[in-house]
Amino acid sequence: MTPKKLVKACNVIGIVSIVLLVYWVFAFILIQVFGLKVFREHITETFGLSIMGIIALMGGALMLNIMLNLTRIAERGQEAAVAGGRKAVWLFLAVFPLLAVLMFGGNYLTVRQKERLLVQSAEKLVRDYPKQVQALAAYRFDDAYLSGLAGRLKLLENQDSAFRDVTLIVPDRIDQTPVFMGFGSTFDFTPLAAVREKAGAENAEVAVAAENDALVYRLPDGKTAATVEKADHLFAADLSEREYLQNTFRTHSGEIRFESENGNYELFYPYRQNGKTVAVFRFSDYQRYGKLGS
Hints:
alpha+beta; 5-stranded antiparallel sheet; 8 strands; 294 residues; elongated; Beta-Lactamase
């Protein structure tokens, strides 16, 4: 290979490498800024090394500069016309919107796939575990109901890998104000055991009374040993979620709501009995990676 051909080959390799690095960094920026989930684990981790791509881009620009000077020296006295320069530039720029479309398209497919999985999982749980679901939907703020709540939710939560958490959302009132209660599988309700421990007897009689939107546990001597407040178990909803829940319980709608943001997925699944919506199950999951891979 002659020096002239070698210089041209190096120029082609340098230009192609720099163009690919520019596209790679552009895709990385899209993923980070918009929280796109497109690639599988190993390709996504590779994006974390994009800082090396920036450094390589700087080194490539320097190397390209040197190669251009070598080209001028090698072709001294010659005026090589560069044909199709404008077309190459337009082609280079056209790849950016195409790449953006592919990235957003991949993210859209990932989100839709996750939505289908969550809906199918919710429907299967309601169909396969009717007793547990019905017991959860029969909400009342008392010791008997709350004592078995976490166990039932944990049972549903462990049946499917499509989601990580299950939250039960039910309507209630605090001081005559409509509110939404939210209970997850991590709900720790052991006041009765704690009260009996304080009483010093496993079978000690403990009085449980509903007072001022709270459960009050009293020892045999009348002293208050524990209090469970409704206000401590409200479901923290944003404006759109609150409007959805209000409409769902008011109109007894069976409309499913799905939300996706930066790899966090939430499915609100209404549960109806006799034509009335009595509870909403919230299935949530977090996914670091997307669906496409190599």
